[in-house]
Amino acid sequence: MHQTGSTTATLLNDLLDTANVLVVELDHAGRIVWFNGAVSRLCGWELADLRGKDWVDTFVTPVERESVRESIAHATEPSANANQKASLLLRDGSQRAIDWFYKPIHEAENGQVGLVCLGHDVTEVEQVRDALHASEDRAQGVLATAVNAIITISENGIIETVNAATKRIFGYTRQEMVGQNVSMLMPEPYKAQHDGYLDAYKQTGHRKIIGIGREVMAQRKDGSVFPIDLSVGEVKLPSTRIFTGIIRDLSDRKALEEKILSISEEEQSRIGQDIHDDLCQQLAAIGCLSKVVYQRLTANNNPEALQLAEITRLITRANTRAREMSRGLMPVVLDSAGLMAALADLATSTERIFRVSCPFHCDPPVQVDDNKIATQLYRIAQEAMANAIKHSRADRVEISLALNDGLIEMFIRDNGIGIQDKKAEAGMGLLTMTHRARMISGSLTIDRDRFGGTVVQCIVPAVTPT
Fold this sequence. Notes:
Blueprint: H1 7-18, E1 22-27, E2 32-35, H2 37-43, H3 47-50, H4 55-59, H5 65-73, E3 83-89, E4 95-107, E5 111-121, H6 123-145, E6 149-154, E7 159-162, H7 164-170, H8 174-177, H9 190-204, E8 214-219, E9 225-236, E10 241-249, H10 251-299, H11 305-329, H12 338-354, E11 360-361, H13 371-390, E12 397-404, E13 407-414, H14 428-439, E14 443-448, E15 454-461
Parallel strand pairs: 11-12
Antiparallel strand pairs: 1-2, 1-5, 3-4, 4-5, 6-7, 6-10, 8-9, 9-10, 12-13, 13-15, 14-15
Helix pairs in contact: 10-11, 10-14, 12-13, 13-14
């Protein structure tokens, strides 16, 4: 190889000298006989400086010298591995990662006389691989320690990966989930609708959850249904796409919201009961006494009797208003038809107190057997009515109640000035309405009505999940 006695040999040496492959020729004792220009360019040494030097002592790091010598010594054995990865020492003391291949040199009369070492610099490849491994380790660490469930699914809805939180939240093992349709984590009717929604999205691109996120219901292995906050992202690959779902269990938050609202309901009930039992009774007693005095003054033709008559009328009116207030604060005691009656009474009292038009529509009748649903819907209607009169300055507020496909739909429409500022939606009243809707697994939207004014829509399942 290093001889140049013919034109063919010269061309071969020139080719090897300009190649990017590292080529080193060693004698039978492992000493350097020849190396090509790629070795010189990489290491910074010229062949004349190192010819006859021990290859391992010169170019191999101390920690790897023993293993390299063993590989070279056994390169001719049938079972030996002719490939080896080792570091290459450069003249400046730095190192490069080289993938070596060893090939023995044989002569007919002398047998093996040396060894050819072919090397490929894989330093950058190793660095990229190490970086990828480190990145993967970090990603796996994040997934493993994440509090929220993280699931990836194929474009056909098949679960591909899950993290530890997914197993903890849903109660399934990884083996039970991977390879299954993600609808296994959903209750009805969402379970039956999921594949159709996914197909519709792939065909039309219309999004309902992807890239948006929303609160939905999920189902554990034991069959229990619970609320989650679901965010879905889409990753488009050259030949397919995958979806990533991040799931946060809202069970604890729901329980806290329910407890807070329960405390609020109890406090309202206490105030309402105090008004009814104490203030209303005192006003009624004062009214009775004023009537007695009025009758005496009238019998004596006292001119002040007319003034006392007016006082009696005002006391009676105040007593009526106080009773109406107490009914609004006290819990709504509802049977299956009670929500309709309560909303009808709310409409009537609103008309009487605020002098506005307030029709109530519920045809056909809506039976609500769950008192929790009925109570929260009534409270939402109360708050929406108050907002319509106080903030929208409406003179007409309409309440409607309907049942469609197992969902209770309640609308409160007004003809006021409408939503002037989206920031107003962050008010405590609207936040309370939203929390009440979530407590009964419903959704609340507030928008401009197409006829002007504002429309509040609350949609809830007819029966709350357990």
